[in-house]
Write a sequence for this structure.
C-alpha cells in the first residue's frame, strides 16, 4: 500500500492541474459560455464592475434558467438575487456568493423573488468607507419604476437593503452610477416612461439624490446607460428601448456631466454592429490598458443562458474617434 501513495498523489496533482488549466481563461470570447473558477457559467447579468484595492468585483442579476418574470415566478430560490464575482485579471472570476439576496419569505419586500431587481451597480464612497449599491427596483409589471439602494462595509457584502424610491420623484428604470474624479456621484436613469434620461446628482454619502438633476435625451427613448470619462470628457453608450431584443447602440459626449450631451452615433463596427452584435450596453470598464465595453446578449427564452459580449473600446489617438470593433476572440494585451 505504502508504495502506491506517491504515484497516486502525483496523478491526483496532475488531474488537479489539468482541471485548473482547463478552467483558466487567457482570452475573451464574446457570446461563448463564460465559466467561473469553479467551472460554472458566470451568472451576473445587466451588471457593473467595481475596482477596489487591486481586485475587480462584478455584480449582476442572477437569473434562473427559463426564469422569465413577470407572472411566471422563479424556480431557483436565488433567482433575482445579486451575485458577486471577483477577479484580478478580468478574465478569471471567482464566485463570491450573493451580495444581496432575495427575501422569498416576505411577499411585501422589494426583494421578493417576484419583483424586478435589475442592473445593479456598486461604487465605493471614500468619505464613508461604504460600498453603495443602486439597482432598478420594480414591480412585476414594471410600473413601480424605482431605484433600490443597499450598503455594505465590504465589497462582497452581504449588503444591507435600505429601501427604494423614485429619485427626485421621477420614474427610474435602467440605471447606472458614475463617480467623477472629484468624488461626486451621479445616477443615470431611464425616466418618464423610458422616454427621457435623468441625470441625478447624489448626496455626499451616495445614498439619495441631492435634489439637483437634469433631463437629457428628451423624448429619445434611450436605456441601458454605460458611462465613462476620457480626457476630461464624459461619454455614455445607450440602447434603444426594444425589451430584451437587440437594437443599435448610440454614443454621446458631454463636456460637463449635467451639461449638454451631443449624440455621436453608433460606436460599434464590424459584423453585427447595427444590432450591437446582438447585445445591449451595460458597463464600460477603465483598465490601465484601456477601456472594455460590456454588453449583455439576452436570451429572452432562457434568461439564465444570456451571454456576455466584452469588447475593447478603442480611441483613435489622432482623431479621437471612439469605436468598438467586433472580435471573436481577443486578449487584454
Ligand atoms: C430592457 C432593459 O434594458 C433590461 O434591463 C430589462 O429591463 C428589459 N428591458 C426587460 O424587458
Amino acid at each position: 500500500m505504502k508504495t502506491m501513495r506517491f504515484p497516486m498523489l502525483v496523478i491526483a496533482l496532475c488531474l488537479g492541474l489539468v482541471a485548473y488549466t482547463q478552467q483558466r481563461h487567457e482570452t475573451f470570447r464574446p457570446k461563448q459560455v463564460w465559466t467561473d473558477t469553479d467551472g460554472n457559467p458566470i451568472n451576473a447579468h445587466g451588471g457593473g464592475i467595481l475596482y477596489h484595492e487591486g481586485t475587480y468585483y462584478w455584480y449582476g442579476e442572477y437569473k434562473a434558467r427559463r426564469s422569465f418574470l413577470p407572472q411566471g415566478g422563479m424556480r431557483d430560490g436565488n433567482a433575482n438575487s445579486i451575485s458577486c464575482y471577483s477577479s484580478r485579471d478580468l478574465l478569471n472570476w471567482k464566485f463570491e456568493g450573493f451580495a444581496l439576496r432575495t427575501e422569498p419569505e416576505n411577499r411585501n419586500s422589494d426583494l421578493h423573488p417576484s419583483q424586478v431587481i435589475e442592473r445593479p451597480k456598486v461604487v465605493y464612497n471614500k468619505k464613508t468607507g461604504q460600498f453603495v449599491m443602486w439597482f432598478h427596483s420594480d414591480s412585476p409589471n414594471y410600473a413601480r419604476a424605482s431605484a433600490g439602494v443597499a450598503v455594505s462595509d465590504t465589497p462582497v457584502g452581504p449588503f444591507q437593503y435600505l429601501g427604494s424610491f423614485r429619485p427626485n420623484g421621477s420614474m427610474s428604470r435602467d440605471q447606472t452610477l458614475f463617480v467623477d474624479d472629484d468624488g461626486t456621484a451621479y445616477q443615470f436613469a431611464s425616466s418618464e416612461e423610458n422616454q427621457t434620461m435623468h441625470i441625478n446628482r447624489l448626496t455626499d454619502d451616495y445614498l439619495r439624490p441631492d435634489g439637483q438633476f437634469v433631463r437629457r435625451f428628451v423624448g429619445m427613448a434611450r436605456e441601458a446607460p454605460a458611462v465613462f470619462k476620457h480626457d476630461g470628457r464624459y461619454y455614455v453608450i445607450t440602447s434603444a428601448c426594444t425589451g430584451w431584443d437587440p437594437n443599435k447602440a448610440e454614443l454621446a459626449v458631454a463636456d460637463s456631466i449635467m451639461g449638454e450631451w451631443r449624440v455621436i452615433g453608433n460606436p460599434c463596427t464590424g459584423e453585427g454592429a447595427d444590432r450591437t452584435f446582438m447585445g445591449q450596453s451595460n458597463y464600460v470598464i477603465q483598465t490601465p490598458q484601456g477601456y472594455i465595453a460590456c454588453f449583455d446578449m439576452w436570451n429572452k427564452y432562457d434568461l439564465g443562458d444570456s451571454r456576455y459580449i466584452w469588447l475593447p473600446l478603442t480611441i483613435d489617438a489622432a482623431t479621437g474617434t471612439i469605436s468598438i470593433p467586433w472580435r471573436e476572440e481577443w486578449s487584454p494585451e
In short: Residues 271 and 277 are 7 Å apart (CA to CA). Confidence is low (pLDDT under 50) at residues 67-71.
